[in-house]
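Page 37, continued from 36.
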């Protein structure tokens, strides 16, 4: 297999693992009372940071770029709304909506070079446009805002990589391997979530609502999310963000919907089942178009 073929295989395998874990990472929390979610977010982000520490040690501590923390800060800000979203509109619908806006923001910023990044080209641009369009056909304000913030989370890392090729840039010589930025990215997540939690404690007059029974499920959820995101970093490197974003952001919605149907009974009735099947067909079509646009 050629190097290009190997990269594609690694990229699509990593994308598949990311889709499965992103669609399942909130499942451990579903049956537990998580209150307003602020304590849960901090526990989840602590688990995320610990996974990043392990990955960083495995990679032998690559150079730390503080600007890469910004993406983590953006993600943590969007993640504040996750618990209210799941409680109000359900796990499946919530992930479908924020995944859609996540996809369009992340794909478009990479494809057209927003925020100072280099525009990415693909061999078959028409297929890429069709794939991205089909992946976001689904469409609740908190979920929309979260999706936009989530979609911006990789912008600082891609910006650093793009400008590492320019000798006059402060990022000249920076690594082109996305996983080298995991520790900085996840450190931004943990730092921001800690700031939000401390602000919450102040607002609650040092009487925050803590839910001990949610600690272990929250930690497991954070570990699953962190592993999924590491896979996403690998997919970004192997496929490029313009291909990986539509695939990884659209698939978890269907996985979450399956959990909602078979385990949590959030989706019931023939009409809703048919709509879910239609959504799956659209997502699968979008994913295949996006995948073939790289070949």
């Amino acid at each position: 297999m050629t190097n290009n073929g190997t990269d594609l295989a690694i990229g699509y395998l990593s994308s598949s693992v990311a889709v499965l874990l992103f669609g399942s990472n909130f499942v451990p929390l579903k049956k537990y009372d998580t209150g307003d979610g602020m304590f849960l977010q901090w526990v989840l982000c602590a688990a995320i940071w610990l996974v990043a520490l392990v990955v960083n040690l495995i990679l032998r501590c690559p150079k730390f770029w503080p600007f890469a923390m910004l993406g983590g800060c953006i993600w943590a800000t969007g993640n504040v709304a996750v618990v209210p979203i799941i409680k109000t509109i359900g796990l499946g619908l919530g992930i479908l909506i924020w995944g859609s806006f996540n996809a369009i923001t992340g794909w478009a910023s990479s494809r057209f070079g927003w925020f100072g990044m280099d525009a990415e080209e693909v061999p078959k641009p028409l297929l890429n446009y069709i794939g991205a369009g089909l992946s976001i056909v689904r469409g609740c304000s908190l979920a929309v805002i979260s999706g936009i913030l989530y979609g911006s989370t990789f912008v600082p890392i891609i910006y650093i990589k793009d400008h590492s090729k320019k000798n006059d840039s402060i990022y000249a010589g920076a690594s082109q391997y996305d996983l080298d930025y995991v520790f900085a990215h996840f450190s931004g997540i943990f730092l921001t979530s800690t700031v939000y939690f401390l602000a919450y404690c102040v607002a609650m007059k040092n009487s925050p609502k803590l839910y001990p029974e949610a600690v272990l499920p929250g930690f497991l959820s954070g570990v699953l999310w962190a592993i999924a995101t590491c896979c996403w970093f690998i997919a970004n490197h192997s496929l490029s963000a313009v291909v990986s974003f539509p695939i990884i952001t659209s698939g978890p919605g269907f996985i979450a919907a399956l959990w909602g149907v078979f385990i949590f009974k959030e989706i019931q009735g023939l009409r809703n089942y048919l709509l879910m099947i239609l959504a799956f067909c659209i997502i699968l079509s979008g994913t295949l178009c996006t995948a073939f646009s790289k070949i």
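The chain has one domain: 3-292. Flag for discussion at group meeting. The radius of gyration is 19 Å.
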